[in-house]
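tool_call: predict_structure(chain=1)
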Amino acid sequence: MYLCSVKKQVLIFNLRRVAYWTSVVLLGLAAVVWIGLLVMALASGWVRTVPWLAAVYRYSYVLMGVSLLMAVAGLLGLTALNPDSSFEPVRFAPGKPVRPAPERVARLVEWLGPRRRPCIIYGRDRELSVTLGCSKEGGTPDLPAGRQYPSHDDGSPMELLFQLRCGDLAPLDPDGHYPHSGMLYFFDGGLVLFSEREDNLVSTDPLGDGEKRWRGEAMEFMAADDYPDFFLAHRAVPDAIWADYAEALRQLDHTTRFGQLGGYLHPESEESFERLTDLDSLEILLSDNEEYAYLISPDDLRLRCFSAARLVWS
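tool_result:
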């Protein structure tokens, strides 16, 4: 018995769908080969007059063998896979898909609805160009001219995890929860730097050896809603399972998370959830794919005191 996260459910579901349609294509190709060979057999006299058709006909037994294997693979795939569009790839026992129970889903929707929190989600877009001062993941930071590059206690340079141009957040944050101008920098080790200026920036190479380095990947943002994690929702509906929770989120039109600013912490396990319950009073400044999060108190966020942020691992 095991539990999969919603993200893993989506992946498994999509893989099953791809495998199913691959089986359909294999059967279709096998049927085309058989029909072609039948036509060639019926018109064998004419086929032998065309050199390339005669060559194909000469190796028809090979084509028959290949098409037979394709047909067998296609039939096995169609038998084993279900193209059902429902959101239910999680299994608690082999061969027994867990289907959402309507009554549990309704109770979860009723409980989750009032607990909606607005947040900003982000993703990486490799098609967007990385320019000076843009929001990006990784690479070398674009620091204000004259700003010293941060380092660890042993003197080694910190690694930039994220660089946010606060102006990108402004259209998605009408209440002014986050700064609407300036730059935010997130480094490993939990350091968060904030600069009120977006001009006079310099791409800073911490090693200073002149080598061409990865410039990072540009980020794009979208407003969304977030809801409590399954481990918390399960306490309100004790008999609920992942499939119920996923279906409840679908009914609430919940956008699948990537990384996010604001919202709820989403630990990967019950153990992580128990360990993070004492952090409920802190807000998420930035969370990345359920792996780690930078947390800050509401007062520090309001005062723009980002140096007080702390890094936790889920």
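agent: The chain is about 35% helix and 20% strand. Proceeding to next step.
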